[in-house]
């Protein structure tokens, strides 16, 4: 069955990590005076994002995300990434907001293939899952969202605390959420159509 026959949303999922050390973009300075910025302390802090780009013909494109801050030194047994329950929460949240079945397209991350996630997918009637082929990030529009975020909210900024980084990422993601043409552009860049 197709997404149109089911009245379903086509949803792409991906994860990305952001650190306190931002990517540098082009900048201007006086000749022979290259600008340098010193960072102290919190450089080991990392923020992981899981995002969903949602598409349905005749509807405005949507973006949902979940943000996780990693401690500099995690406690024993603490995960440094998402587990299958985090992905389940994000999918249930998106389904509630979209109000329609979801056709999920994501990569072969080991967390996506855990026993708990497989059982959740089997018992959930509103969710159909397809895996992307290996090494094909160019087919996932969420990669474009991460690229936009790195070039805007995350670029050329020194974050004094992890809270500053989280605030900048949330602000950047909110701007993208309110501009659905950016989410549409990320899909167009893949060459795919909903």
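Q: What amino acid sequence fits the structure above?
A:
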């Amino acid at each position: 069955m197709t997404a149109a026959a089911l009245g379903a949303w086509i949803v792409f999922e991906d994860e990305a990590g952001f650190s306190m050390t931002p990517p540098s973009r082009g900048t201007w300075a006086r000749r022979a005076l290259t600008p340098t910025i010193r960072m102290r302390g919190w450089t080991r802090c990392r923020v992981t994002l899981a995002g969903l780009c949602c598409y349905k013909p005749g509807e405005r494109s949507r973006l949902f995300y979940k943000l996780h801050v990693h401690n500099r030194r995690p406690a024993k047994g603490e995960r440094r990434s998402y587990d299958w329950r985090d992905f389940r929460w994000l999918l249930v949240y998106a389904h509630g907001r979209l109000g329609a079945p979801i056709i999920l397209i994501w990569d072969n991350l080991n967390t996506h293939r855990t026993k708990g996630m497989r059982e959740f997918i089997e018992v959930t009637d509103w969710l159909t899952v397809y895996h992307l082929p290996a090494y094909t990030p160019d087919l996932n529009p969420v990669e474009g969202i991460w690229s936009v975020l790195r070039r805007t909210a995350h670029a050329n900024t020194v974050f004094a605390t992890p809270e500053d980084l989280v605030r900048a990422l949330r602000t950047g993601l909110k701007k993208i959420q309110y501009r659905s043409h950016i989410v549409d552009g990320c899909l167009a860049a893949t060459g795919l159509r909903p």
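Q: And what stands out in the fold?
A: Residues 143 and 186 are 8 Å apart (CA to CA).
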